[in-house]
Design a protein that fits this description.
The complex is a heterodimer of chains A (about 300) and B (about 160).
Chain A (H helix, E strand, L loop, with lengths): L1 H4 L2 H7 L7 E7 L5 E4 L2 E6 L2 E3 L9 H12 L7 H5 L2 E3 L5 E11 L2 E14 L9 H7 E2 L1 E2 L2 E5 L5 H14 L6 E5 L7 E2 L2 E2 L7 E5 L3 H11 L4 E4 L5 H12 L3 E7 L3 H6 L3 H6 L5 E6 L6 E7 L4 E3 L1
Parallel strand pairs in A: 10-16, 10-17, 11-14, 11-15, 15-16
Antiparallel strand pairs in A: 1-2, 1-7, 2-3, 3-4, 5-6, 6-7, 8-9, 12-13, 17-18, 18-19
Helix pairs in contact in A: 7-8
Chain B lengths: L1 H47 L3 H7 L5 H14 L4 H11 L5 H13 L5 H48 L1
């Protein structure tokens, strides 16, 4: 997929890098291309990685080329994603956009004149959730929240956990509310990443829509979602929990202390909605376990 | 010998008549396809968010218009310049007038870079132009396609009579 969206010079340089560790390619107008390999950033040169002096510079044409290729010359088809600041592509690749945000009558129309792109390349890390698996599935599925700062493997963890459920023959009906196409990365109706055998996916919709409609029409045993952050997200989780549906979710938090301080999460803590909280970090690479906590926020695994 | 010559002249006359009248028929059919493409693409973009290349692929059996769409596809995929695209269109579709090529290329170069509402409004605006042109081509076809065909046959017959 990268070959079809990147200019030839950039792709030939990228192809010299170890693809398994490639996390991000950052393009900023007038700056050198930065690649993130296994959590560390480097400049990209024609020969691969470079020191500070050399590198491939990004111009406006390059940014426009990538957007045109990524949208297949059809911005309108992906404008709902663009309005949220990203474009999702085949293979689970996601392009984050920064540029001028256009409003008309207080309604967000689009993002134009993009000046930065962040191309995120997902990797399936098989069995990365296994250490936590037995804590999350003790007799029954425990509602679980994954916490970490951005880029520490929350989505990878969630995806693997969903896969492990079917791999371990737990016939739970799983519904993924994939608001940003990150978990299953559905393209043309087909999940691009392995999310197991018993999984249904709602892509590109809000969590509240997926939770309410999914529970009514798909009868899930577990609902999975990424990056809860707003009051509405918390409401959707409370609704699912009250309906007796298990919840697996993630949120941006560095640690339990920060989690306690976050607005909207008080109610979740008070009601003990999440029976397990897994904290991840980037200390020894993405997906490093910092600890698993129970509903009282007490350590149960480190 | 004379009979052979007359046959040759008549065949030539029919051929010339066919060439002249086919120009009018092709123009009309091209613009009919274009107007229909505007309708289809409006619906597809509005309801299904169908991408441009898919739209082009769906119009693969519309004769000359499909050839035009293939030229446009090449223009997109090879990052050709707009002027080059116009030149290729003018060369390939010699029956299109200069200003028709201009608005055709302007329309296609403007498709795909906007949000849905703007895209639909853009298609609607251009469709009004194209419908006007198509009405003209339909009239031209009715008036001249048959007329020139008959005239050239008549010419052939007259020349044949003169030879005899």
């Amino acid at each position: 997929m990268l070959s079809s969206i990147l200019p030839e010079t950039v792709y030939s340089a990228i192809s010299k890098l170890p693809f398994n560790t490639l996390n991000e390619i950052r393009l900023r107008v007038g700056k050198k291309i930065v690649v993130c390999l296994a959590g560390k950033s480097y400049y990209l040169s024609a020969n691969g990685l470079s020191n500070n002096n050399e590198g491939i510079y990004v111009d406006r044409q390059m940014i426009e080329y990538v957007i045109k290729q990524a949208t297949e010359y059809s911005l309108y088809a992906l404008n709902n994603q663009i309005k949220q600041g990203f474009i999702s592509l085949q293979g689970g690749i996601r392009i984050g956009l920064a540029g001028e945000v256009v409003f008309e009558n207080k309604i967000l129309k689009t993002i134009k004149n993009c000046s930065s792109l962040n191309i995120r390349v997902p990797h399936e890390v098989k069995n990365c959730s296994l250490n936590a698996f037995n804590y999350i599935l003790k007799e029954n599925f425990h509602n679980t929240l994954i916490l970490s700062p951005p880029g520490c493997g929350k989505t990878t963890f969630i995806r693997d956990l969903v896969y492990q459920l079917s791999n371990h023959n737990y016939c739970y009906n799983v519904l993924i509310a994939d608001e940003r196409f990150e978990i299953a990365s559905v393209t043309n109706g087909e999940p691009q990443l392995n999310v197991g055998e018993f999984t249904d996916v709602y892509s590109g919709c809000t969590k509240s829509f997926a939770f309410e409609n999914g529970i009514r029409s798909l009868r899930p045993d577990i609902i999975v979602t990424d990056e809860i952050a707003t009051e509405k997200d918390v409401e959707a989780i409370n609704y699912a929990s009250a309906c007796g549906v298990g919840v697996l979710a993630s949120a941006h938090c560095e640690n339990i202390a920060e989690f306690k301080r976050k607005p909207y999460f008080e109610e979740l803590i008070k009601n003990k909605v999440f029976k397990r909280i897994v904290v991840l970090s980037n200390k020894k690479g993405p997906g490093t376990y910092e600890g698993i906590y129970d509903e009282n926020l007490s350590f149960i695994y480190f | 010998m004379i009979i052979l010559l007359i046959l040759l002249i008549l065949t030539f006359a029919v051929f010339m008549g066919w060439i002249i009248s086919s120009k009018y028929i092709k123009r009309d059919s091209f613009f009919k396809s274009l107007v229909s493409f505007c309708d289809t693409s409006s619906n597809e973009i509005n309801f299904l968010h169908t991408k441009l290349l898919e739209l082009i692929d769906k119009e693969s059996n519309r004769g000359d218009f499909s050839d035009f769409l293939n030229l446009f596809k090449t223009f997109l995929q090879t990052s050709q310049k707009k002027e080059e695209f116009k030149e290729n269109v003018s060369k390939r579709f010699s029956y299109l007038k200069r200003e028709e090529v201009e608005s055709l290329c302007n329309f296609f170069c403007s498709v795909g870079g906007k949000d849905i509402e703007s895209e639909l409004a853009n298609i609607k605006n251009y469709k009004v132009q194209f419908v006007d042109i198509q009405k003209g081509t339909e009239e031209e076809k009715k008036k001249y396609a048959g007329l020139y065909f008959k005239l050239s046959i008549l010419m052939g017959v007259v020349v044949s009579i003169l030879i005899i």
